[in-house]
Amino acid sequence: MISAPHPAAPPSLLPPDMRVFVRGWLSSNNLLCLSEQTPALIDTGHSKHAAETVALVRSALGDQPLARIAHTHLHSDHCGGSGALQAAWPGARTWVPEASLDHVQAWDEDALSFGGTGQRCDPFTANEALVPGQTVRLGDHDWEVHAAPGHDALAVLLYEPRHGVLVAGDAMWENGVGVIFPHIDGSDGFDPFADTLTLIERIDPAVVVPGHGAPFGRAGGAIQAALGRARQRIDYFNQHPAQHALYAAKVLIKYQMMDVERMPRAAFDAWLASAPSLRLLHRQHRPDLPWDEWLALILAPLFDKGALRRDGDAVVDGG
Questions:
Q1: pLDDT-derived band of residue 11, with 50, 70 and 90 as boundaries?
Q2: Considering just the CA atoms, what is the radius of gyration of the chain in Å?
Q3: CB 306: neighbour CB atoms within 10 A?
Q4: DSSP assignment letter at 89
Q5: Of 4, 20, 238, 251, whose CB count within 10 A is highest?
Q6: CA-CA distance, 235 to 222, in Å (whole number)?
């Protein structure tokens, strides 16, 4: 299964030395900054598509080595290709958000959220910290680093002010919002996400490169409309937090199945039982229901809508 990259957006949206690889799930988008000195890639996709990510970058750079790798945050769909890129270009230096640097260097899967969500990510190393309030040189541009808590408490935005390009990670999509992970573990609520949306509005980018979906710009009010939709969704979650838990549980299960594609039912049940985040979501959504009854409630619509399928004694991703 490949992530089906395709041309992202009209060339006029981005400077000619920036190239976006729009990826299908599971991988995040990647922004390649071309340069004679410091070609760089922002976000690296999922481990499942790591070889494809390397091939995309190699095709764009030819014989030129990749010099720098940076990450908006360290969920597995945004950093899973980093190890393969480092193996292909050992001289590349790697930046991660400041608060994540020690966790990467120690490769602490619990601190990096992989343990809690039951997801996988190939290990990689990091040399440098993305510090909010500072800038980082990626390609031939200086990018501002902004803290962007919400979807991930440690996430950052990268903003290139000369051309108004914002790499938003999962802080902003054109349609919808991602799971608010800090709410799952109880470390924060939904307000930091709303604050990050306010920051984006203040930055007033000319073009947004989201973590998923094609880049979009100011034309036709697309950025303002996206901000409005995201705020409506966050307001809804603030009013109905149990609905966020329901949404998050379905996303985590579907995400896992997109990765593995097929699991024996016993292995599927074991994975469900071993993912701490699902236990937390059970308590947030329907603590009145026993675990097995809650799982049945969550899984039924996934099977009914074809997101998952049964094939004998196996559970299969429905595509």
A1: low
A2: 19
A3: 9
A4: -
A5: 20
A6: 20
Neighbours of 228 (CB within 10 A): 12
CB proximity list for 92: less than 8 A, separation 6 or greater: 65, 66, 67, 68, 69, 85, 86
pLDDT beyond 60 at 219: yes
Is 314 in a helix, a strand, or coil? strand
By three-state DSSP, how is residue 223 classified?
helix
**C-alpha to C-alpha distance for 306 and 310, rounded to whole angstroms:** 10
Q: What is the pTM of this model?
A: 0.94
193-197 long-range Cβ contacts below 8 angstroms, 24+ apart = 193/149, 193/150, 193/151, 193/230, 193/234, 194/150, 194/231, 194/234, 195/149, 195/150, 196/148, 196/149, 196/150, 196/157, 196/171, 196/172, 197/150, 197/171, 197/172, 197/227, 197/230, 197/231, 197/234
Token pair 């970058």 is found at 57
Structure tokens at 6: 């395709």
Model confidence band, residue 4 (pLDDT cutoffs 50, 70, 90) = very low
Q: Say how many C-beta atoms besides its own lie within 10 A of residue 6's C-beta.
A: 10
The residue extents of the domains of the chain are 6-239, 246-317
